[in-house]
Amino acid sequence: VQLVESGGGLVQPGGSLRLSCAASGFTFSMYHMSWYRQTPGKERGLVAAIDSAGGSTNYVESVKGRFTISRDNAKNTVYLQMNSLKPEDTAVYYCNARRNDFSSWGQGNQVPVSS
After folding, report:
1. What is the mean pLDDT of the chain?
2. What pLDDT, in 10s, does the model give residues 44-88?
3. Of 7, 24, 38, 68, which has fewest CB within 10 angstroms of its CB?
4. Which residues lie closer than 8 Å to 37 by C-beta, 6 or more apart?
């Protein structure tokens, strides 16, 4: 099982960024996918989640209206489009694959939001 994230990097406040997470080694279309983020000294927290078919999504309140999670099951990839970024969005972002008792994490991707 492998989850490889890409798309992170320094962005200015108000800017946009799209994270990608490419999956391999498992049947991607059967897994619930999520994005989490973590800052130093804090626990990893859920940002957005999408069900296996892509028909249902949910978001933490602080990113609603700014972030969009989506998936392409043909490409085994989940995305996180982040718009109107704020300094408080600065974190390491992780993708997660989950089904029943199985859970796997990507390596993490730094997203600093700073001018």
Report:
1. 96
2. 999 999 999 888 999 999 999 999 999 999 999 999 999 999 999
3. 24
4. 44, 45, 47, 89, 91, 92, 93, 94, 111
Pairing verdict, β 67-72 and 57-59: unpaired
Tokens of 67: 């972030």
Residues 4/76, Cβ–Cβ less than 8 Å: no
pLDDT at 8: 87
CA Rg value for the chain: 13
d(CA 106, CA 115): 27
Determine the Cα–Cα distance for residues 100 and 102; give it in Å rounded to an integer. Answer: 6
Please identify which residue in the block is written with the tokens 């099951």. 73
Q: How far apart are the C-alpha atoms of 113 and 40, rounded to whole Å?
A: 15
Tokens 């991607």 correspond to: 28
How would you classify residue 107: left for phi > 0, otherwise alpha for psi between -120 and 50, otherwise beta?
Answer: alpha
